[in-house]
Amino acid sequence: MVLTRHILALATLATSTLAVDCPGADTAGTPCTDGVFVLSARGTDLNFNLPFQNGPNYTEQQGQQDVATALVDKAGGYCRSLPYASSPYLLYFPSINYGIKQGQSTIREYVDRCKSTVNPRIVLLGYSQGGQTMTSVLIGGQGYPTLEDYKQYITGGAFFASPSFVANYPIDGGNSTTSGLFARGPVSYNYFSTTYSNRLRNFCQAGDVFCANAGFSDEAGRIHENAVNAYKQEAIDFLWPLV
Ligand SMILES: *[C@@H]1O[C@H](CO)[C@@H](O)[C@H](O)[C@H]1NC(C)=O
Ligand SMILES: *[C@@H]1O[C@H](CO)[C@@H](O)[C@H](O)[C@H]1NC(C)=O
What's the half-sphere exposure (Cβ side, CA atoms, 13 Å) at 172? Predict the structure, then answer.
């Protein structure tokens, strides 16, 4: 009897912590779901140097799949990786440009195809370059418009250590009081915060090399690399009631 209870408890635990992975939206598709469609964008991949393609590691979500797992566990649905290059250095902005295009077209296509049969509920995640890309997917930039016409389908989001972070807005999470290396301008960031702060958090920890523009040091780099780990539980707690 005790043993049976023990096994049942283990089974429950196993089911509720079964990790969701995030295959590419380009290869796995985006079937219409009444659950959540989580679209997640990885951070920079130092190995990739072609900006207008998908990077070889673009399905590695660097811990963000733990957030996706918690949300899919509650609401049903699935996670997909944003197909983009996440290239470094001189290819950084071209890579983001391609990512914005991919993100906006993925969201528009999903909503247009699915809204007559399900209630589209999209959750966006992004780490580092992925957070900057997802921010621009929502508020435009680099020649792209905002996603204003689709904002009601964005159920929630969490971005971690985005270099386009701007400090001291309601949408911000974490404790940075300084803005990022590629901080967005006040007009577009104010639009971001006003439109999405009830359902999205843009996390940045004080001292982060990129999102807090804290300068290059081992400690600043460690803070940046640890960002998803540092804030994923807070992200889950914030998003859980929304999905
Ligand atoms: C990315 O993929 C390449 C092979 O395509 C591999 O050598 C490299 O270690 C991967 N990078 C990361 C950060 O996992
Ligand atoms: C910011 O938050 C982190 C994590 O909670 C903490 O370790 C750090 O001391 C805080 N830094 C500042 C400057 O408040």
Answer: 24
With a 6 Å cutoff on the Cβ, whether 56 touches ligand 1 is yes
Would you say 52 and 85 are in contact if contact means Cβ atoms under 8 Å apart?
Answer: yes
Beta strands in the chain (DSSP E): 36-41, 77-81, 122-127, 154-160, 172-173, 200-203
Task: Choose which residue among 160, 165, 205, 228 to substitute to test ligand 2 binding: the one with the highest number of ligand atoms within 8 A of its C-beta.
Answer: 205
pTM: 0.93
Q: Is the CB of 229 under 6 A from ligand 2?
A: no
Residue numbers of the domain that contains 166: 36-240
The CATH number assigned to the domain holding 194 equals 3.40.50.1820
Classify residue 7: in a domain, yes or no: no
66-101 pLDDT tens trace: 999 999 999 999 999 999 999 999 999 999 999 999
Q: 185 — phi, psi (to 5°)? A: -70, 160
Per-residue confidence (pLDDT) for residue 199, from 0 to 100: 98
User: Within a domain: residue 131?
Assistant: yes
Give dist(CA 147, CA 63) in Å, integer.
26
Mutate to test the pocket of ligand 1, among 47, 127, 225 (most ligand atoms within 8 A of CB): 47
Cα(160) to centroid(ligand 2), Å: 15
Residue 27 lies in a domain: no
Supply the pLDDT for residue 10.
42
Alpha helices in 49-185 (DSSP H): 64-75, 92-114, 129-139
Does the residue 188 lie in any domain?
Answer: yes
Number of domains the chain contains = 1
